[in-house]
Specification:
This protein is of the alpha+beta class and about 240 residues long. The protein is built from seven helices and 13 strands.
C-alpha cells in the first residue's frame, strides 16, 4: 500500500498551467510562471493573465535601437540600470515583462528594488513598450497598471501607425518633441531621443542626439544629484 501511495502524483507539485484570460493574484501567477518553460512568456496585467504574441523582425529592430540608447545613457550615468525584457513585480495585480526600462538604483534614491530571488519589484522610473498598434495592450491595460503603480515615464512605440507616445504620469501630460524634433526625458536628464529618427530606425542620428544629451549641463547636474543621494544614503 505504501508503494501505491508513493506512486500517486503529488497535488502540490503538479504544474498548473497558465491560461490566457484567467484572473489571479500576482503571487499565484508568479508561482505558476516560475514552473513554465523558459521559452514561454506570460504577463499579469490588471489581474488578468496574458500570453505574449510572437515578435516580428521590426519589433526586434526597434528593441535594438532603443536598447542601444538606454545602454549608452546608463554607461555614462552611474546609479542607473537598464531593464531588458525583465519580469517586474509591480503590485498584487500586476507582473508585466516590459520590453525595456530604465531605473535609478535604490541606493541612489530610486523607487524600485530587487527581490531575494533576483526579480525586479516596484515601479521603474521609465518603462518602454514596442506595440504593433494603438489597439495593443501596451496602450490600455499596461498603461493603466504602469500609471497606477508609480512608473514616472512611459514610452510606447506604435509600429503600425509609426507613432511615438511618451507619457509623463505625474503631470498627466505627454512629452512632445521640441522644434528640433527631440524628445527629452523629464526624469532622466540628458536622455534625448530624436522621435523621427527612431521611427525610421536611423542609428546614426539617434547616436548623435543621445551624445548631445549626455554632454549637456542638465546631464552633468543629474549625475551630481545621484552621487549626492548615494553619499547621503551611505551616511545614514
Amino acid at each position: 500500500m505504501s508503494t501505491l501511495s508513493s506512486s500517486l502524483p503529488n497535488e502540490q507539485n503538479r504544474v498548473q498551467r497558465l491560461v490566457n484570460g484567467e484572473r489571479m493574484s500576482q503571487a499565484e501567477f508568479h508561482r505558476r510562471y516560475e514552473r513554465c518553460g523558459e521559452d514561454e512568456k506570460w504577463e499579469l496585467v490588471g489581474g488578468v493573465v496574458y500570453m505574449a504574441s510572437p515578435l516580428r523582425r521590426k519589433h526586434s529592430r526597434y528593441d535594438d535601437e532603443i536598447g542601444y540608447i538606454l545602454g549608452s545613457y546608463r554607461r555614462q550615468t552611474p546609479g542607473t540600470e537598464v531593464l531588458h525584457n525583465a519580469t517586474t513585480i509591480l503590485d498584487d495585480d500586476s507582473e508585466p515583462q516590459p520590453d525595456l526600462g530604465l531605473r535609478i538604483l535604490p541606493e541612489y534614491g530610486g523607487q524600485s528594488w530587487t527581490t531575494p530571488d533576483d526579480y525586479y519589484a516596484g515601479a521603474p522610473e521609465l518603462v518602454v513598450e514596442i506595440a504593433n498598434s494603438k489597439r495593443d495592450l501596451a496602450l490600455h491595460g499596461k498603461r493603466d497598471d504602469y500609471q497606477r503603480t508609480g512608473v514616472v515615464e512611459y514610452l510606447v512605440v506604435c509600429m503600425e501607425e509609426r507613432e511615438l507616445h511618451w507619457y509623463h504620469f505625474p503631470s498627466g501630460k505627454t512629452i512632445h518633441p521640441n522644434r528640433e524634433g527631440i524628445v527629452r526625458s523629464r526624469v532622466f536628464s540628458g536622455l534625448w531621443l530624436d522621435a523621427a529618427a527612431l521611427l525610421r530606425l536611423d542609428s546614426a542620428r539617434l547616436l548623435e542626439v543621445i551624445e548631445q544629451g549626455l554632454a549637456s549641463r542638465e546631464h552633468a547636474a543629474f549625475v551630481k544629484r545621484l552621487q549626492a543621494a548615494h553619499r547621503k544614503r551611505g551616511s545614514e
